[in-house]
Amino acid sequence: MKSKLYSAFGLVLGSLLLPHLAAAQTGMKAKEGKYYAITDVPVPDSVVLEVGGLAFTPDDKLGVATRHGEIWLITDPYQKRSKQPQYARFAYGMHETLGLAWHNGSFYTTQRSELTRVTDTNQDGKADMFQTVASWPLSGNYHEYSYGPLFLPNGDMLVTLNLSWVGRGASLAKWRGWMMQIKPDGTMRPFAAGMRSPAGFGFSENGDVFFAENQGDWIGSGRITQLDYGDFAGHPAGLRWSGEYGSPIKLKPEQFPDSIGILHDFAKKTPHFKEPSVWFPHTLMGISTSAVLTIDSDEFGPFKGQILVGDQGHSKVMRAFLEKVNGKYQGACFPFLEGFSSGVLRLVWGSDHSLFVGMTSRGWASTGPALYGLQRVNFKGVTPFEIKAIRAQSNGFELEFTSPVNKKQALDNSLYNITGFTYSYHKTYGSPIINQQPCPVVKTEVSEDGRRVRLYVDGLREGYIHEVNAGSLRSQAGQPLLHNVGYYTLNAIPKGSGPACAVTPRSVAATAAANKGACGSDPAKCVTTQPAGWSKPDITLQIGTKPGLKFDQAELKVPAGSRVKLTFNNNDDMLHNMVITNPGKGDAVGKLAMEMGLSGTNLAYVPASKDVLFNTCLLAPETSQSIYFIAPKTPGDYPYICSFPGHYAVMKGILKVVRR
Amino acid sequence: MTVRSFLLHSAIIVGMAACSSAKKEKEEAPAPPESLPMEVLSLDNLDAFAAPDNNWQLAGNVYVNRQQPQQMEVKEGKGILAFATAKGNSTLRTKMEHGDIDLELDFMLSGQAGATLLFQGKYPLQLKDSWLKDSVTVDDCGAVEGKAPLLNACKAPGLWQHLEVKFRTARSGYSATGTTEAGFERVVLNGRTIQQEPSLDSITTDTLLKQVQTGPLGFLVKNGPVAFRNIRYKTYNDKRAALTNLQYHVYKGVYKNHDTIKLLMPVRSGQTDSLTYRVGDKRAQLLLEGKLQLPVQGEYVFSIRAGGPIRLMIDGKEIANNGGTRDYQRAFYGDTVLTAGPHDFQLSYANYDECMVLLYEGPHIPFTALTTPASERLVEPSPSMEYVLKGEPAIQRSFIEHRGKVDAYSMSVGAPVGINYAYDMVTYSPLLAWHGRYIDVAEMWHERGEQQLARPLGATLDLAGIPCIAELSSVKAPWPDSMRVDSSDYTNRGYMLRSDGLPMFFYTLHQWKVEDYLHPRQDGKGLQRDVTVTSNGAKDKAYWLLASGGIIEKLADGSYAVDDKNYYIETAVKPEIVEDDGQYRLVLPLETGNKTTDIHYSIIW
């Protein structure tokens, strides 16, 4: 029950964010729509298609396992013969089937407590045989979801077992938090540990297993990790069972103090620890990674071999490029496609190389508002101008583009912004972005064909995520980048020759220090001591908050040109600021704040805009701050907002400037 | 301090004395009672009743032939109150008179028999053989004046049925004007609520100022025979505890250790007349202190429920503590013996989630809130989502409640004739059976479905749920009571959906191949179980368990009454009754070699 409190809270925040994200998305969705078409696969009214698993049969029917424990068979999901594909209920009555595979004449699906083989033995179109291949204990906690199977080439299967939730991730039943390997005869062995919410896993191009993890306790942000037998992926709760027969891992939960520091440093000295291959920074990419699917053809655009990762909460599909450095995977993730109708949980390829996207959002709200759905993505044949790949170099990165770049523009060092950061590895839920530092680009080279740009970068750090932003770079043909940012997880910096770049820790540190505690980019807008020459303010205003993301006053009144002391008392339980803007510019400033990305936290989410007149710092709960300013000389309605991302649409008011 | 209260607190007292045995005793301290014990109406003789006529007698055991109406065989003894004749018009009245009362009893009806319980000698609750009736009316079992029961929760004639009643008396006169009607706040038959009158569930101060009516409990029988046993009750008067001189102190921060605030200065203090978290602040510690004025000496039970750490101290002693949980739906209990008069009262609450509820129960005082209604955080109930059968059977796997615990491996099977059962897919054994509608799935399919429970929509018969086949050296050897989930002894297991839409479960234990098919009996009177066990060269002895539980008796008609007449097993095979320290099993040996044993039997309840 505890979890209900947390989740309800999460849902409230989520729903408040939705309108803005949705608004931001429509713009991007339209741009992406020039290259990739998202269409609905219509679902009959009588079918609750809360997708838990997707798998095609050999005769090209799409099998859909649902959270109600059904398997539907969709004939002609491509809508070649009819706009309304035929749905037939193949099986039902199972317990929250969250994975589906077809193998040798049967479906295989994972229920909460077992892996089940589902067969239609009398060929009447309905399953009649349900065989328990293997089962595992449950404690009865709702969070004990089970996923899979993924068939290995030898016919064995992998399943993953979600942790229980008791206000934190806990392994209340044996093997919760593990990936298990199951032979066709039902023999089961623990394969890898350290998972929290491993809803999605799949193969890379060369057959390595990757699983997607969700932000939570011990997990600072979403990520994908490659797993071999005997690997540990970071969440210690499941290690409670590492002493059990068959465990390849000897780590114990006691070896994990509540706050460890940087995951990379701890992983290096800890046997079995496999650090994430690619981090998907929370909210900058998505908020809840789901399916993992490799692009297996050139028919889906220029990204063959890369991995698609779904995101349930943000209703999107992201893209990851992988490379091996020192024998281990690392790489970059990129935005790819957003604006799906519900929460993206499952991805599968159709025979025509279109992508089927299965969705559900019951209990976990998603930006796509529908409760469930099935959609399909077709590549339109036009290549988008994108950063195709980012490769680590000994002293920087090489960016590969999908088409030649404007060479002259690409040589401008100042075009690129590279920032290193990471997350705390601790028991606490989630993590702020920590140790953020800019990495100056000191030199740029462009390949002869214009498709590769070599950046020489100062201040790269091993074990850190690096945001690589190519800004306004255009293609040779004058196209802007469809998405101009990628996040490279630099677990290892490859050794190599090439011009050495001096790392300049001093300048990096100086920048960081300058950022620290800043309240917006312009200190003149945030004066916190009474200016010299004021004997006293002409008017003193007090404002606080009330529950439900609101200021406690919707209107304040000041005479034009008066000397104002304004005290903002944040008596809420969340972070807030107060930003006064030019008339009619409240929403615009709020939107700008949402786009500040990594720099947002350091600048108190106050964008550098002429429409920002005055602002407070970002105030922690139960703190207050007074600012001093001279009221505008022009009477009018000056909006004030909280510009913390997601708050501005509801947390706002009007400063009425009246004639003296 | 009385001996009893000393024992109750021995854990705490010994725990304070630092000796090695203290720790052990502390671990073994029993959980505090969740309510005061009920008074027992003795059936050792008929002294509890006023002028019983000859129709009423005491019995040691009773048997009903369920095929024959209005017939009962009575064995000499005591402990059972029987009205053994078919016709009569006789009311038996207790000497005990009651106003508000909680009553529990078991009753048994012969076929077509009935009885009326008369609360205060005049407010009727019908008990009647309404077994298998599709719809129930104001004349059926569980009806109260003018109100039909919410559903048919009746069991077959000859089985013990369990009844729980909360009756509220009428009140009138005294200083308050107007009258309060008598009524049944709640009636629960065989585990299902069949009457509910929410307006009666709280007695206000106004109500208490009125005069209470009292009267005896009556047992009226016109069509017998019927029998009663285990008659227990709590009667209540209108005395209540009160809080006086209530002070509150609000401290900055929230603390699991309630003594932390001794080091802090309150940020705010004051007087209050309401016990509620609302006098404090969110995310702040709240201390409420005052006097608890008790009307009588005796044993008191306290129940606390809060979103965040809470501790109740009385006279400087910890009475109840929720261990710091934020689970505001889970109650914690403490009990103590207290004298009449004032006691130091202290309640400390770390307000995480705005819910603080304190109830108490005392001698002839029902559970009553000391906190105000606004101090409780209400939980939005899941909407109802009935899984309606559309003319054919259905199956659905889920969690299910079984004997007070969650079984995570259950399949519920429903047939449109109104016969349903739940089956455990680890032990391959039935867990529950019920008549009527199938299940409600809101707790699975609404929002996250955090309970994942299917809720049976009828009165459930509890079955053992333990493995049904075992290889044993002898029929007397201990029966296995569980099966491992992750390395089951069963192989090749699962179920086949038959053309009738019902599952046939199958599994193999070593050489023993089992097929297990449960379906409604042709006559709709229960569940038929058809089991086929094939011994593929098995040499070791093995047995099939038809039933288990409390006493199993073979009846005159050849069927078996199982688990102290909780249900019937009807079969043509010849199983053996095995007793093992008060627990009984109905067991059939299986044929070894290369043979097939067919076992057919019915479960009737």
Automatic annotation (TrEMBL), chain A:
InterPro entries reported for this sequence: 6-blade_b-propeller_TolB-like, BlueCu_1, BlueCu_1_BS, Cupredoxin, Quinoprot_gluc/sorb_DH_b-prop
Record key words, sorted: Copper, Electron transport, Metal-binding, Signal, Transport
Keyword Iron-sulfur belongs to the record: no
MF (Gene Ontology): copper ion binding; electron transfer activity
Boundaries of every Blue (type 1) copper domain copy: 547-657
Residue spans crossing the bilayer: none
CDD domains: Auracyanin (cd04233)
A Pfam short name: Copper-bind
Region forming the signal peptide: 1-24
Keyword Nucleotide-binding: no
Gene3D superfamilies assigned to the protein according to its UniProt record, in alphabetical order: Cupredoxins - blue copper proteins (2.60.40.420), TolB, C-terminal domain (2.120.10.30)
Domain of life: Bacteria
PANTHER family: LARGE, MULTIFUNCTIONAL SECRETED PROTEIN, LARGE, MULTIFUNCTIONAL SECRETED PROTEIN-RELATED
Descriptive protein name: Auracyanin family protein
Native species: Chitinophaga agrisoli
UniProtKB/TrEMBL annotation, chain B:
Domain PA14 positions: 285-327
Domain of life: Bacteria
PROSITE patterns: PROKAR_LIPOPROTEIN (PS51257)
One Pfam family linked to the record: 3keto-disac_hyd
Domain 3-keto-alpha-glucoside-1,2-lyase/3-keto-2-hydroxy-glucal hydratase: 55-233
SUPFAM superfamilies: Anthrax protective antigen (SSF56988)
GO molecular function ontology, one term from the record: hydrolase activity
Protein name: DUF1080 domain-containing protein
